[in-house]
Design goal:
The chain is α/β, with parallel strands linked by helices and 348 residues long. It is built from eleven helices and twelve strands. 45% of the residues are buried. Pfam families: Iso_dh.
Length: 348
Amino acid sequence: MTAAKKTHRITLIPGDGIGPEVSGAVVKILEAAGAATGVAFDWHPYDAGANAFEKTGEYIPKVLYDSIEKNRVALKGPVTTPIGGGFASINVTLRQKFELFANFRPVKSLPGLKTNYPNIDLVIVRENMEDLYAGLEHEVVPGVVQALKIITEKGSTRIAKFAFDYARKHGRKKIHAIHKANIMKLSDGLFLRCCRTVSEGFPEVAYHEHIVDNTCMQLVMNPYQYDILLTENLYGDILSDLCSAFVGGLGLVPGANLGTECAIFEAVHGSAPDIAGKDMANPTALLQSAVLMLHHIDEPATAERVQAALEQVYREGKTLTKDVGGTSGTKAFADAVMAAMEAPVAAA
């Protein structure tokens, strides 16, 4: 066994519902991968949401804020967000607090998993701070609520720059800016002007623009025409869920919230309280988010080891969870991934 060469401090937010189960499975897999590649993790676990409120009287305890600020990297399981009332979204609050302006969601097919759209490889780059998610809404008079859409030159330019920088670094050839500027002429018009300006500095990346409703139709008809989708906040939220269906659903796709100082990697699915504690949850989404995290902290060998093992489990198809047509539970799936990681070592 290789001695640890570096220890990474990671803030861990297990989440609620199925969160602790999938988080626990992912931590086990990362620990096993790290033991083989000489990487150690110092986990700093904290609750958020309703669980945290019961214990501390705060939905996001100050110690959690402090931990993320100190460690600069967090891995987050799903946290329930009340609908139409209750406390504010934990996800949005953390993104705003740490100015995590870029939401990065790769959508890629897993081997061996049959879907209606094979060999998908899309990237959604979503502005993460503005638009309707700025949370500026109020009741004007009873029965009339006003919500403000915020689009700025600064926010639009930096998310466009993020997308084009990523395309250049990773050899992606095409970006579509998604908008509704035919109706939202000032706000979405500003977003497009910023995207066009940034695109001029990246002549090797083809730049296109599609209206968001047409994009939905085009994606369903032929998703292969797209490479990177560059979006405002709300459009990106909707389109990322739509695109996840191409590869098997939200239980499979990763998500990263990136800023200049901090990063939070999270599963983009919900907390699924109906199956919590039943050893049924699929940890793939959070595991692939953890792979993104490993790349972010400059541990590519560990990331590639985990990803290769995950893909091997899907390729074999013997130990999959029920949501993707298997009969195995969370723990068995995690064990299969760890066994797949050991196979190359044993062969060597």
